[in-house]
Specification:
By secondary structure, the chain is α+β, with helices and mostly antiparallel strands. The chain is 49% helix and 13% strand. Residues 847-882 form the EF-hand domain.
């Protein structure tokens, strides 16, 4: 590798380097401790220095220096990990540089020319290199070490590296931590003690920052049931964030494929960089905080002050700019933030240079003034240009006074198919303006409070979000404003404004479609809030059907999941139909990620977060109930339906209000408040059933005393007629208590806990899947449970290997999460042949061998080009044991048709034979010691030649290779003689004078037999012997008589098997026991070192 020329002093390095070659201008040196004569104490010390120190001159064992005769200064210009590599550089210098240097007169010109040439070479390498980091020189040096120490495939992309300590017990080992796309690696070499650690990200169960008595802070990694701790003086937080990103990326790409979103920064595993991961993490935080669409990316961040008119002062914060949004969040604790869509910006006034300020004017005659912006002029120009791009017809729907009227509804001809333009609550429970009962008066007071808030803080998309906004949410949202505020807080208003007419098109396209999702939707329509009048009519049912069907059509990966109907029903009560659709999009794709899929991973992750919060905030409950899994089972419906399924509808909508403002944090807080409220009763419980009863009674007692809904709309509590019912609990008081006691839970902590627990949840699901697969497969094969466990890990890792370095592998492209767990991980032929070559019991092993192809085609029952774990184990269990494998060798000699069934030979003519069924039956017959064997097709001369070659290949490299070759020669010779005898018996009787020609015709086969025996002394040429003999015999047989055909030149299975059984060396070879445990261990070590197959 060419290096940026760097001046060095040989005097200080005299004891570390040995000169191998030199000339007038260049010196090639080898590092002491490497190569010949490099052992002893010198090698130990040098190896330790190479590990601990970070210097170009102390990394590679070979280097080339440039110098001039009249100078004592040397320049390092190249290094190499091997002698072959450095010699190539040396030869290049001799051929391309040495002749040119004689032209120069001065040493300065020579040195300048050499340095320029080397920099040019490095620049050319940089154009094609994927390594683009902040310090290319040091990174290239680290890349060399990474490749040398861990011997991973060249396709593996090193993302970054750090100096750190790895703790083995109480002893720290200083070394280097390397983070690549698919692996976490650590290397340490201190005074002869080498530590090498390689962990793939898909094997990590836990990744968290911890502290203990010895370490103030460290990174804890749990993998393979072992705990690993890494500590460092610098960059610990940065390291942890990168590790978290890589682990999450690996989990999404390899396990949670149905939720994986291809993003530009992460679409290609070979292009992952530290900078790209950091940018992706910041954009993700930016979108989550401001509830923006997934298409938005954080482009610029500017520190500034924002004039807050309602407080009459400037608040310090940051301007965050994306493609279509200008956002601001304060940093001084006032919890103030604002979101300005570019489509709402009407003008950017000329910047004020004195205060470095710019004013952004938005619709509704409002303006926001940002001051003390360092790069204010460029920011103003950027906003202007983006507003010009955004000012398209699709953004003209916004109005100045009523932002909620952005909705675009298009009626259709058939009234049953019309898109509803009103919220169902407005239709089925219109407000009576003249009604002045206390509840309605309180409702009017709430509306007045919100109107005052709108006048001060703005209304619509550019409204200020402050503490006061949250206080109003906790008190309760007025019925008339609920739909508008849900749209605003969730960010759905932006989705709908930028996609006019989208929902109507989806409804038209999805009408009449019939899928599994639509069938499930029809089944659940009348189970959605059946007690509410809106869903006792065709109006509500039709609207619910359209929204759910349109979303299933939009997102077939999710389609329809239970609980979506309950949530959508509530959304339709307070939002117009199109608004309800976009609210459902916001919930399923942003606010509750991975909730509504087949494995409800998101809900399981949040339940794990909930358990962590219980341990932290309710220690008394934890002491009494050591197993918190009970809370996971009982709280699943809380998370999936946002408490709608357990609370009366008039109370549940208040919870939904908080959810749209604070996200999952609001649900977690309320869950803790519920448990806290029932603490004493839960502690006194004797079993889980009693605890469930207590919680159910509590939820039945929750009321909303301020709800203006009539009794026909409100849900009746189950315990209303029970004299011993739970005392009534007002939902507003419960929510207020939740915010007072647990409002200190930060959204950032929740997101961090989500990432940490997601690893554990998915690995737990994977482990359950593995146990189920092993339980099924163990009934079909003779491997032990421990061996099947190791085999499954190897099989799964091989499956991942085809996904590590590409997004276009068959395993990813054809992944179907609806398949049974047994089918989730499959191998194509290329990956199968690689893994089979690692596990097969013979010395011969070539991934290109036709043997692998034959076995693959034989066990691929559905002929889809993929085999699952069960099929793979059957291949090892049946074919790698005793003489049963000879059947596999015999059968593949035929060309397998597409349907996987081999037809019998014409002379037998009794239908067709299913090979897999035959193998299983024959195996059973052998176990029962039965002698009956079914007839199989006969093999002709070409197939016989291939059969013989396969036998020779299998024995290659075996200690008994010579005797096995002789045995094969005997078998083939015997078979040829038997065939000749059979052919003569089938020939018609001839006069005595024809006997002599017949014996002449017999001579080729006899010659073939003799030639087989002669070739015993040279077994490696034996494979060609059957070919020549059988070809000659076939040719002469055609000349002997017109009635002889190629099909008559064949062998039966009984003949092949009998001939093999006559050779003790062959029998002992196939009956030789295999050390499965050792074979699995060898395969595990060798698997990662194999070249990646794309």
């Amino acid at each position: 590798m060419w290096l940026k020329p760097e001046e060095i002093l040989l005097k200080n390095a005299f004891k570390l380097w040995v000169t191998e070659k030199d000339n007038e201008y260049f010196v090639l040196q080898r590092r002491r401790g490497y190569g010949e004569g490099g052992g002893g104490l010198t090698g130990l010390l040098v190896g330790t220095l190479d590990t601990v120190l970070d210097s170009t001159s102390k990394v590679a064992p070979f280097r080339i220096l440039h110098h001039t005769p009249d100078s004592q200064v040397y320049w390092s210009i190249a290094c190499g990990m091997s002698q072959k590599e450095i010699v190539q550089h040396w030869d290049w210098l001799q051929q391309n540089i040495m002749r040119t240097l004689s032209v120069f007169d001065s040493s300065e010109d020579i040195t300048s020319f050499v340095q320029g040439k080397i920099r040019g070479l490095i620049a050319e390498e940089g154009k094609t290199s994927l390594v683009l980091e902040e310090d290319p020189e040091k990174f290239r040096e680290a890349l060399l070490r990474f490749e040398k120490w861990f011997e991973l495939p060249q396709e593996e992309k090193l993302v970054t590296y750090y100096s750190c300590s790895y703790w083995k017990g109480k002893v720290p080992c200083q070394g280097w931590l390397y983070l690549s796309t698919n692996f976490l690696c650590f290397y340490s070499y201190l005074l002869g003690s080498e530590i090498k650690l390689v962990i793939s990200w898909d094997e990590v169960w836990r990744l968290e920052k911890t502290s203990n008595v010895l370490l103030t802070e460290s990174i804890h990694v749990l993998a393979h049931g072992e705990d690993h701790y890494f500590s460092m003086l610098l960059h610990l937080n940065e390291t942890f964030v990168i590790m978290e990103q890589l682990a999450d990326y690996s989990i999404k790409r390899l396990f949670d494929k149905e939720a994986f979103q291809r993003e530009p920064a992460l679409s290609d595993p070979l292009q992952i960089t530290k900078r790209g991961l950091e940018a992706h993490a910041k954009s993700d935080q930016f979108r989550t905080f401001f509830r923006l669409p997934k298409e938005e990316n954080l482009l610029e961040v500017h520190e500034s002050f924002l004039w807050v008119p309602f407080s009459h002062y400037n608040t310090l914060g940051k301007i965050c700019l994306s493609e279509n949004y200008l956002c601001f969040a304060s940093q001084d604790g006032s919890q103030c933030h604002v979101i300005i869509p570019m489509r709402e910006v009407v003008n950017v006034e000329k910047p004020d240079s004195s205060s470095r300020a710019l004013t952004v004017c938005v619709r509704g005659k409002r303006a926001l003034r940002f001051s003390e912006v360092r790069d204010y002029q460029r920011l103003a120009n950027t906003i202007r240009s983006r507003c010009g791009i955004s000012a398209s017809p699709q953004h003209s729907a916004s109005t100045e006074d009523n932002p909620e009227d952005v909705t675009l509804m298009v009626g259709q001809k058939d009234s049953s198919k019309a898109v509803s333009t009103e919220a169902l609550m407005t239709v089925f429970h219109p407000q009576d303006v003249e009604n002045l009962d206390p509840k309605m008066l309180k409702e009017k007071m709430k509306e007045q409070s919100w109107n005052i808030h709108f006048s001060e803080y703005g209304r619509g998309t550019s409204m200020f979000f402050t503490r006061k906004t949250r206080d109003l949410i906790v008190r309760g949202v007025p019925e008339a404003l609920r739909g508008e505020l849900w749209m605003l807080f969730s960010g759905a208003v932006n989705d709908m404004a930028t996609h006019p007419g989208y929902y109507t098109e989806l409804v038209e396209q999805s009408l009449g479609t019939s899928t599994l999702a639509t069938d499930e939707i029809e089944r659940d329509l009348h189970r959605s809030l059946p007690e509410h009048p809106a869903f006792q009519s065709d109006t509500g049912i039709s609207a619910l059907r359209r929204v759910l069907t349109a979303y299933a059509y939009r997102n077939p990966k999710i389609g329809y999941c239970q609980a979506m109907n309950i949530l959508t029903s509530v959304l339709l009560l307070y939002a117009k139909e199109e608004e309800a659709f976009w609210l459902l999009v916001a919930v399923c794709e942003r606010m509750l990620p991975d909730y509504f899929n087949r494995r409800i991973i998101g809900a399981l992750v949040d339940q794990a977060v909930f358990e962590d919060l219980i341990r932290e905030n309710l220690p008394q409950l934890v002491e009494h109930m050591t197993d918190l899994s009970f809370f996971s089972s009982v709280s699943l419906s809380w998370f999936l339906t946002l408490f709608i399924s357990v609370l009366p509808i008039e109370s549940a909508v208040n919870v939904v209000d908080c959810f749209f403002y604070d996200g999952i944090k609001a649900i977690l807080q309320l869950g803790l408040a519920v448990l806290d409220y029932n603490m004493e009763a839960l502690i006194s419980c004797h079993d889980d059933a009693e605890a469930v009863t207590i919680l159910n009674k509590f939820f039945d007692s929750v009321t909303n005393k301020d709800s203006p809904l009539p009794p026909t709309v409100q849900q009746a509590s189950v315990g209303n007629n029970d004299k011993t019912s739970h005392p009534k609990v007002d939902i507003s008081e419960l929510i207020r208590e939740a915010y007072e006691k647990y409002g200190n839970i930060r959204s950032e902590e929740v997101e961090s806990s989500r990432k940490r627990n997601k690893l554990y949840v998915i690995q737990t699901l994977e482990d359950t899947t593995k146990q189920n697969v092993i339980r099924v497969v163990s009934q079909e094969v003779r491997f032990t449970a421990a061996q099947l466990d190791e085999l499954y890990n190897l099989f799964k890792r091989q499956h991942f290997r085809c996904c590590y370095w590409t997004m276009k592998s068959p395993a990813l492209l054809h992944h179907d999460p609806s398949l049974a767990y047994l089918e989730q991980y499959q191998l194509g032929f290329q990956q199968f042949s690689v893994l089979f070559s690692l596990l097969e019991p013979w010395a011969f092993c070539s991934t290109k061998s036709p043997l692998s192809l034959w076995i693959f085609r034989l066990i691929d029952e559905n002929q889809d080009g993929l085999v699952n774990f069960k099929e793979f184990c059957c291949a090892l269990g049946e074919f790698a044991r005793s003489l049963l494998f000879t059947c596999c060798l015999y059968i593949p000699a035929f060309d397998l048709p597409v349907d996987g069934v081999i037809r019998k030979s014409p002379e037998r003519g009794r239908g067709k034979v299913d090979l897999q069924a035959y193998l299983k039956q024959w195996q059973n017959e052998i176990l029962k010691k039965e002698e009956t064997i079914k007839d199989l097709p006969r093999i002709d001369q070409t197939q016989f030649i291939q059969f013989s070659k396969t036998l020779y290949n299998i024995f290659h490299g075996d200690p008994e290779e010579e005797s096995l070759y002789r045995a094969v020669a005997h078998v083939t010779s015997l078979l040829l003689r038997m065939e000749e005898v059979g052919r003569r018996l089938q020939e018609p009787r001839s006069p005595p004078e024809s006997t002599k020609p017949a014996s002449t015709a017999d001579s080729p086969a006899a010659a073939a037999a003799e030639e087989e025996e002669e070739d015993e002394s040279s077994p490696k040429e034996a494979p060609t012997t059957p070919e020549s003999s059988t070809t000659t015999g076939s040719h002469d047989s055609q000349d002997a008589g017109p009635d002889l055909t190629e099909t008559e030149w064949s062998f039966s299975f009984e003949q092949v098997l009998a001939s093999l059984l006559n050779e003790p060396s062959l029998v002992s070879f196939f009956e030789r026991p295999v050390d499965v445990h050792a074979k699995l261990g060898q395969a595990k070590v060798a698997q990662l070192k194999l070249k990646a197959n794309k």
